[in-house]
Amino acid sequence: MNIIIGRVLRVQGRGNKGKIDLRKHTDSVALMIPNRYVSLSFQTGRIDKSYPTVCGHTGPVLDIDWCPHNDQVIASGSEDCTVMVWQIPENGLTLSLTEPVVILEGHSKRVGIVAWHPTARNVLLSAGCDNAIIIWNVGTGEALINLDDMHSDMIYNVSWNRNGSLICTASKDKKVRVIDPRKQEIVAEKEKAHEGARPMRAIFLADGNVFTTGFSRMSERQLALWNPKNMEEPIALHEMDTSNGVLLPFYDPDTSIIYLCGKGDSSIRYFEITDESPYVHYLNTFSSKEPQRGMGYMPKRGLDVNKCEIARFFKLHERKCEPIIMTVPRKSDLFQDDLYPDTAGPEAALEAEEWFEGKNADPLLISLKDGYIPGKNRDLKVVKKNILDSKPTANKKCDLISIPKKTADAASGQNEAKLDEILKEIKSIKDTICNQDERISKLEQQMAKIAA
């Protein structure tokens, strides 16, 4: 399936037949890196049918996520059970891209969620309909953590916390779980966070609390705020309306504003999260005429600070993508530091190996006072380890990057069995070639005699 890449950081929702189909684009270069531009004017128009695409998957593309530490790298999950990581050329696509940098294979069913680690370079999470969460080191193409026994039903969404030490999940069994992926432990869990049968969503906030959306038993849409240290009762619980659309939350940690985009709705509601009751404060609603099939969200460093732009969405219609810009009116032309506190920059705070070893770090912040000036992105290089050179390692008391319920000895035994199988096949092929060489030699001798 094809991915037509425009200026969408992440689309929540599904495009037509699994394809993200953007029929509108901006300025002369239709593919631009989402965090690159600070000041721009939108030009609308239809994309030519021959426009280059990213088209390596054999099934519909279900989710995409731009890498927060490299503006040229995007990950995609698909119904073909694979995750692919792509390197987009610096100046955009001129030809369709069919070869990913790396293909990550480990799921047995379709992959509906991909999410980059917020602070560690080359760490990518994927979740599939096999109810498993896999955390990859993209730099080596390895699956280093496999959480395959924590969910009994479909995973609706996964969210990293601020420093990437924990994840929270919402699943079809109506549970919200907070998980330490390296210890492979469930830190907190709430059954029936929302009692309705419709899908839920759960995201981490900057202060460590968890924000959820879901449905009541009477099919009313709800939002709730939870403290992971005590999830018996929510900090706040609000009922919205009786619409059927799943509420997709988008969170700005700099201003503590949450935007709720209902799938199939034609509006965006936004709320401020505070430490004072009622904790979740309704601010306003943006309304339009046409319903949204999905929604993309621009990172803060891609906004126009000169126009006091605080959020930019990309509303996915059936045949087009519409930018929605939200601004705060200010008379002064000076930089509004209350709207733009230092925000997460593109530099990773940790390398993948450091995070897998147990280190944590908050995002490295940058100022937007002079606008965001992108630096040179380094190429994503994947160095796969040679399994033939790997040596069995001794069992450790706590191996943070081992696959659960599979010891090092078992993995080593499997590798040795696979190696024996490969060696036998190589020997068989060599024997066949040797026999053919002898046969060819005899035939050549016969030809020489006939010719004489």
TrEMBL record:
Entries under SUPFAM superfamilies matching the protein: WD40 repeat-like
Biological-process GO terms, alphabetical: actin filament organization; neural crest cell migration
Lineage per the UniProt record: Eukaryota, Metazoa, Chordata, Craniata, Vertebrata
Swiss-Prot/TrEMBL WD repeat ranges: 54-96, 104-146, 148-189
Gene: CORO1C
Family: Belongs to the WD repeat coronin family.
Listed Pfam families: WD40, WD40_4
Domain of life: Eukaryota
A single MF term (Gene Ontology): actin filament binding
Gene3D superfamilies linked: YVTN repeat-like/Quinoprotein amine dehydrogenase
Protein name (database record): Coronin
Alphabetic keyword roster: Actin-binding, Coiled coil, Repeat, WD repeat
